[in-house]
Amino acid sequence: MPVLRTNGMRLAYQEYGSGEPVVMVTGTGAPGRVWRAHQVPALTAAGYRVITFDHRGVAPNGHPERPFTLDDMAADLAALIAHVSPGPCRVVGFSLGSIVVQELLVARPGLVGQAVLMATIGRADTLVGVMASAEIALCDSGAVLPPRYAAYVQALQYLSGETLADEERLRGWLDIFEMTAATDFTGVRGQLGLQVIRDRRPAYRAIRCPCLVIGFGDDRIVRPQLVREVAECIPGAAYTELAGCGHYGYLEKPELVNSAIVEFFAGWRKV
Asked: Which of 48, 84, 126, 180 is deepest in the core (most CB within 10 A)?
């Protein structure tokens, strides 16, 4: 796996396929490999070169010696784009990753030609703040939830009602959640709470990059109304809301998500 050294960090990344680059930006604590099952095959089949990477704090990048900010994560993304793309490229973000992309669009608008923002926010409301505080408290307590219990909680948080009602699919998800239940929060701790942002919608009104904003109808982590607010404040942004999807909508119904992304990307004509 290639490594980019930037901003005092080592940033591990991976490339797939050939063609114009698309950089994928994950959510809190997630490694770049989460895109491999569904989005990487769809985008490489559409003729793109896909670049995935691991945020600072996620193995194998090591743990930063100091607390870091959204600006730091946006600077990491900027360095990666400059490294892998000769000009403005396409970027896909999810959850915290989408917020990082938005901050990059404000700070370095010339780096991105098109952006897809999934399950994003432009402000943290009460529930987002409470959720972040609870996650930080759990992490700092040193407690480790039994994997089966953690799987049950994740299923309720991240999956749609449609998936929860499908016993065969649900059992598969529960097995995945149980196998991947976190026992070491050292790396992800630095990312916890970064989604608790002040109201950034006024700043996002200056974004001129073509954006597709995707909300998930059953998302209990980032409710669709918060996602829609982002689309409403970015001039010219398109908004689509996918039914039957929880927070992990890009994994629950990847065909719908991938189709929306590929169709949106096809409309970009470089000047």
From this structure: 48
